[in-house]
Structure formats: C-alpha cells, structure tokens
Write a structure and sequence with these properties.
Purple Acid Phosphatase, chain A, domain 2; six-stranded mixed beta sheet
C-alpha cells in the first residue's frame, strides 16, 4: 500500500513493525565537543535542538512493544497537547501561561492511575521535539503513569523536527519519541483492541491518503467483530476556533472523514491541536477535541452550530467568543454504549470536576 510501511497482523488488529531505537551516545574529546557545540547552535536554530544525544527515558517507564490489547473492563484516559509554549511565543502572540494549571490537571489524572486501562495522548507531547528539557518535562508528567499502564500516542506537529513549525521532517522519527515509543513510524497507522472496540491511531502530519485507505480497509475487516472504532489523531477536521492560523483541517476531512459516513464499526473521532475542549456532531459522527493538557487555550466562535457541549465556559468576550476548561477525557465501554466523561477546570480554580458526560449508543 503506497506510503505505508509493511504491516503485520496480530489477533485481527493491524500494527506497524516500528523502528528500532539507537540509544548509544559516544564520549568525545574537548575539541570534538566544542565542534559539536558549534554545529548544535546552527542545528538548534533550524530544529529546536534536535542534534546531539537523545534524552533517555526513565528506566522501566515506557513499554518496549505495542500492546495487543487493553483491559476492556477499565476506563481509557485521553489527553492532548501537553507542550509548554515558549515564553517569547506567548508574549508575541499574547497567549496565557499554563505553568500553574497543568500540574493541577495532571495530578487529578494521576489519582486514577489504578483505575485506567491506558493513556492515549493525541499529539504535541512536547513543544520542541529536539529539546531535552521539553522531553524531561514530558517524562516528569507521564512517566509515573507509563510505569503502570500503556501510553499510546498519536504524533502531533510539535513532535516532529520543524523549522519555525513550518517546514518539518516528516520522514524522520524524532529520537526521543522513538526511544519512548519504538513501534512508531512516520505516516504509519497502528491499532489496539479494547474489548469489542478498536483504537486506531493515525499520523495527521503526513501520508493521510494512504492512511485513509488503510482505515477504510480495516473497518471493513473489523465490522463483524467490533462495535466501534475510536480514531485518534492530532489535527481536528472540525473546530469552531477563532484567532489562529489553524482552523478545520481540510486534509483530514478529505482523506479520513470522507471514508467514515455510513460505515461500521461506528466511528468516533478524537483529536487535539485546538487547545481547549470541543464536542461536535457532524453528519451523525461525534468529533471530540481534547487538547487542554497544557498548551495556551484558544477562543471559540460565538456561533457554533455543530457544538453539542453544554458544560462550563471559562470566559466570554464582547463578541460572545468563549474559552473552554483545561481537560482530559475518560472513556469506558458499557453494555450498549460507550461512555465519555470529560474532566477539567478553569484557571480561576483548582477544582477539577466533570465538565461533560455523554454516551454514544453502539450495537452490532
């Protein structure tokens, strides 16, 4: 299949073969280190510090292999956009700092470490993929969870090596990303069973046409066995955001959404990228944006015709635009439905609570 690396089948779920990580960094003389430092300065300007030795993950914190399935008797947690935006970028774009709010949200998630089957991250694990300090921050947030449950990512735009977030090396697996998730390969989807639900992970940054074909074929194969497919990717095909360069992602609409209408298993699309929380229903399909894990939040338009969220808003402006809470999502299988519970809070309080709860009926 064009644009997708070879796939192997395991228990009816298709997964990528992945790439092997190199974890060896050699020592060097003082002169060699000086030369490397000079080269690194040039590289940092282009790739945010992607040169040099990769930051090793904490011992025993991340799975070596992709799990074949998750414990379907437990809820699944989903969070997105954990990156901490640089101070200069916040100043230039007049965006909020979330340094105080993010630990509150993550602490609430950590209290559920013994309850959940796994953690899904819908992209933007870090702000700059080549930054050791960014990956150290990610490890501080996620390693305690990763030692207890599988962590499954859908890669985001910030997770690739990029020049000013415009020109990105989508054919290169970032070293730190590969060390923590060795099965990942650019543009290659993977899937994990969750009882009679399939979790499908797509790379929204590259090779979408091929991934759409893969998803369509797999859904045909999954239909006799599975009730629903939860599709995780970073970029949102639908959103009511305002004041950003990114709106609805038209490529995701063209190559992924166009293949979902009227198909079984029942699709539900869960994304990040648009910092905040949205729950939209378009042509009968539910689209949830859970991108409130730490990035500065965006504003949503006053007119939101597809938005079915009725939970708390954090702020309103004179135009009727709103800002949504920091958040993460809990998903659980029920007898004839899938339940979704979003937990979150606004910056004015540290009381994390349920901001939305709904269920989607599913049957074979």
């Amino acid at each position: 299949m064009t644009g997708i690396r070879p796939l192997v089948e395991a228990h009816g779920i298709w997964r990528g073969t992945g790439a092997q990580a190199s974890t060896v960094c050699s020592c060097a003389s003082a002169r060699a280190l000086a030369i490397r430092a000079a080269a690194a300065l040039l590289f940092v300007s282009a790739f945010g510090g992607a040169g040099g030795c990769a930051l090793q993950p904490p011992a025993d914190a991340f799975p070596v292999e992709l799990p074949e399935s998750l414990d379907a008797s437990r809820p699944l947690a989903v969070i997105g956009d954990l990156q901490q935006t640089r101070a200069f970028v916040r100043w230039a774009r007049k965006r909020e700092s979330t340094a105080e709010e993010q630990p509150v949200l993550i602490a609430d998630l950590h209290t559920r470490i013994d309850e959940i089957a796994g953690l899904v991250i819908v992209g933007d694990l870090v702000y700059t993929s080549g930054s050791r300090s960014d990956w150290r921050h990610f490890d501080e947030l996620i390693a305690p969870l990763a030692r207890s449950v599988p962590v499954l990512p859908a890669i985001g735009n910030h997770d690739y090596y990029c020049v000013l977030m415009q020109k990105c090396l989508h054919h290169v697996v970032p070293k730190e990303f590969r060390l923590r998730f060795p099965w990942f390969a650019p543009g290659q989807p993977y899937a994990v069973a969750y009882g009679d639900v399939v979790l499908a992970f797509l790379d929204s940054e590259t090779e979408l046409e091929a991934q759409g074909a893969w998803l369509e074929q797999r859904m045909t194969e999954w239909a006799p066995t599975y009730r629903a497919v939860l599709i995780f990717l970073h970029r949102a095909p639908f959103t009511d955001t305002v004041g950003r360069s990114e709106g609805p992602d038209l490529a995701v609409q063209e190559h992924i959404v166009s293949r979902l209408k009227g198909r079984a298993p029942l699709p539900v699309v869960i994304t990040g990228h648009i910092h905040g929380y949205e729950h939209l229903v378009v042509d009968g399909t539910h689209y949830v944006v859970t991108a409130g894990g730490g990035g500065p939040r965006t504003m949503l338009a006053a007119d939101r015709p597809s938005d079915v969220y009725r939970g708390p808003e954090c702020s309103h402006d004179e135009l009727g635009q709103v800002q949504r809470p920091f958040n993460y999502l809990l998903i659980e299988r029920r007898t004839a439905a899938i339940g979704f519970t979003a937990r979150g809070f606004c910056a004015e309080t540290d009381d994390v609570s349920v901001i939305e709860s709904f269920e989607i009926s599913v049957s074979r």
